[in-house]
Amino acid sequence: MTTTNNYAGIPDKFAQLETAKVVLIPVPYDGTSTWGKGADKGPDAFLNASENMELYDIETGTEVYEQGVYLADAVTENSSPEAMVNSVHAATKDYIKRNKFVTLFGGEHSISIGSIRAFNECFDNLTVLHIDAHADLRESYDGTKFNHACAVHEASQTTNLIQVGIRSMDAIEKSFMDEEKTFFAHDMVNDEYWMDKVVDLMTENVFITLDLDAFDPSIMPSTGTPEPGGLLWYETLDFLKQVFKEKNVVGFDIVELCPNKNDKSSDFLAAKLYYKMLSYKFMDAAVEDSYDNTYDVDQIAGASNNSKFEDDEE
């Protein structure tokens, strides 16, 4: 369990909703997993590891927490997969409309149905960058379309979906897959230009959904469905850094940490990954040591004509 009420134990002045640029929503949900259980324990393990992490990022020379990170109340709805997705959608959209950079930590991958839906409603021409071992394109599974195996099916129909690291899928998923926008792990290992090719397929506004089983189990064993042949640490960081540099990342979620009490390395990888992604997003602001704690919609959307905010209150 965590020992403070703030993300990574940061000082209170950097953890207030009013001034924080970043919102972190934990979603401890494991209602549809089909093999390894425990993703509902992922957010607590991630937060605990974050408290034991150095907050100076050597690569960017920044302390990104000073941009402000508000730890929101966890979404704990678990009466049904659909109810959970609706709750995630509502919480995510609420914080987007408050002009925050919204991030989520799951929980299993079905939570992303709600987060992707919210971002797609708020940002024009959205690219969903799906980094995962599994295609997650089934229309329904185990009697529901809100299953972790369906995590990006809706996105495949409503957004510019790009899939990276895929190395496990069912034949039926081919009917929903755009293979020109799918980067299979066995091809990536022999293609030195795969990162550039992925970025070239993106629109300006990008939401990242990252399943931790995208990583090779040699460095990330604590997932519900580990697959051999995955991504390694530095190549993943190089790719993410390029995406954040060249595109307008509007938010992200990280899912599928299933903590193992005998191995804390996976928890710590997840904590470092989250912090790295924030560091890449805000490194220019951090380097400039900006004292402006307001975060305009245009800063998230890149330009006002990229956003889809409506005047009505929901």
Q: Given the C-alpha coordinates, what overall shape results?
A: globular
The H-and-E topology, N to C, reads as EHEHEHEHEEHHEHEHH
State the helix count.
9
Regions with pLDDT < 50 over 5+ consecutive residues?
Answer: 290-306, 310-314
Structure described in brief:
By secondary structure, this protein is an alpha/beta fold.
What order do the helices and strands come in, and which of them pair?
Layout: E1 22-27, H1 42-51, E2 69-71, H2 81-97, E3 101-106, H3 111-122, E4 126-131, H4 153-158, E5 160-166, E6 182-184, H5 185-188, H6 194-200, E7 205-211, H7 233-246, E8 248-255, H8 265-287, H9 297-301
Parallel strand pairs: 1-2, 1-3, 3-8, 4-5, 4-7, 5-6, 7-8
Helix pairs in contact: 1-8, 2-3, 7-8
Would you write up a description of this structure?
The chain has 314 residues and is an alpha/beta fold. The chain has 9 helices and 8 strands. The protein has an 8-stranded parallel β-sheet with strand order 2-1-3-8-7-4-5-6, sandwiched between helices. Helix 1 links the parallel strand 1 and strand 2. The two termini are 34 Å apart. The model is unreliable at 290-306 and 310-314 (pLDDT under 50).
Comma- or semicolon-separated keywords:
single chain, Arginase, Chain A, 8-stranded parallel β-sheet, 15% strand, globular
